[in-house]
Specification:
single chain, 298 residues, MetI-like fold, 14 helices
């Protein structure tokens, strides 16, 4: 009997799992139902349970508020922050995990400090320093958001490195692999799922930010959360706010699906010999670099 057969739920267990999955889907999807109704409601008066007039006025109003430019700026900001915070978190986590940092507890506490500090007070203090250093507002927003995302990326990557086996890298080097080959063919494939999760969290930090963008950005960087908040503060903008709120959900959902698609830890199968885990180009370069001993018998 194979392990897949043993792990396959049968009878009541499968029914319970399907029921729990359905309940979770309903639990997370139910709050978006009013938003969908509001997005296409030109009129909705109490006590009617459904909109009294349907239309696309909400979409037109959302576009008039600057939905598309704000959406693009938010996506770009999230990608930039994720591209910077993810490798920095990976480097910090690897150094902390394998003891390459003096006073690791103090460094860990320093990296996690942005989570413990009150965001509003911390950002106000940092903004004074950025202004005195003549840092451009957009660059200041990126720098502060990277600092706020580092605790999440470092924590995710440290968990991954806690289960990381350095012997695979050592074996690849013994087989003649160059540092770049070890990085591309051994290191990155093994931590790819963790990198995807860390990048997803870093993107969310920047995508949903409001305080940093308002205070540090000083109005020069108008992202989607700022546009939604401005529209929500007015009267009669419910349909436009609903449309923009639904638009704010799309990138995180797509990224979450992409992260879930990155399956496997990249580690060789437990029952497989270590020699078989060496990549073909590493093995071939190792065989070509082995010295031949003249006079050796076959």
């Amino acid at each position: 009997m194979t392990s897949s057969t043993l792990n396959t739920p049968r009878g009541p267990g499968r029914v319970i799992r399907l029921a729990v999955t359905a309940l979770l889907i309903v639990w997370f999807a139910l709050p978006f139902l009013p938003l969908v109704l509001w997005a296409f409601a030109d009129g909705w008066s109490f006590p009617s349970p459904l909109p009294t007039a349907w239309g696309v006025q909400g979409i037109e109003d959302a576009l008039g508020f600057g939905l598309l430019p704000g959406f693009a700026r938010s996506v770009l900001l999230g990608l930039v922050v994720a591209a910077i915070a993810t490798p920095l978190g990976a480097l910090a986590a690897r150094a902390l995990t394998f003891g390459a940092v003096p006073f690791p507890r103090a460094v860990s506490a320093l990296l996690l400090a942005p989570i413990a500090l009150p965001p509003f007070a911390a950002v106000l203090g940092v903004n004074v320093l950025l202004l005195r250093a003549y840092i451009p507002p957009v660059l200041g927003v990126v720098l502060v958001l990277v600092v706020l995302a580092l605790p999440y990326t470092t924590f995710v990557m440290r968990t991954a490195y806690g289960a990381y086996d350095l012997s695979y890298e050592e074996e690849a080097r013994l087989l003649g692999a160059t540092p770049s080959q070890v990085l591309r063919r051994v290191h990155l494939p093994m931590i790819a799922p963790a990198l995807a999760r860390a990048g997803f969290l870093a993107f969310l930090v920047a995508w949903s930010d409001y305080i940093v963008t308002v205070i540090v950005g000083g109005g020069e960087l108008v992202t989607l959360p700022l546009i939604v908040a401005g529209a929500a503060a007015g009267l009669g903008n419910d349909a436009a706010v609903a449309v923009m709120s639904l638009g704010a959900v799309i990138p995180p959902v797509l990224l979450l699906i992409s992260v879930l698609a990155v399956r496997g830890s990249g580690r060789p199968t437990a029952g497989r010999r270590r020699r078989s885990s060496a990549p073909p180009d590493i093995a071939s370069s190792a065989s070509s670099s082995r010295p031949t001993i003249s006079g050796a018998s076959a």
